[in-house]
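Hey,
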Amino acid sequence: MPAVVAGVLLAACSQPAPEAPRPTGKSNAAMVAEIQAAGQRDKSVINVHPLVDPGVTSLQEGARNDERNGQFDAAAAKLEMALKRVPDSPDVLQDRAELAVYMSNYDLAAKLAQQSWSLGSKQGPLCARNWQTMVELRQRVNDTAGVAAASKSVEDCREAGIQRF
């Protein structure tokens, strides 16, 4: 009997491990471009723009400049400073999520995009960017069900206007 158990255990060990999802070939820059485009495409009648601290705005602009120049660490440092001033700012959280995508920190990107969405208005361009982040991250690992669900959520961010005749 022990020989049978040992044989079964050895056979189980020789089985190949389940294959992990393979990342898609899309670059981080292409993923971020899609995320930002989702916000630009959203034509919701509702677009919340809360009052912001001018110092935070300056940090965000500096981070965007650093990002354009490929200085991701410097951009991240600026956004982290902004988050220390306004830790619950949905737009700063989403900016940091997009930067995390550039830096291949996909787990952080998902966490920040989700946090941004939960604190945000759940409608409009920021919402679309939040959910497009999830679309891109799920596409990256070939999670078709996750892509479909997140894509539906991108569509749900749009609040159409009232038809007037």
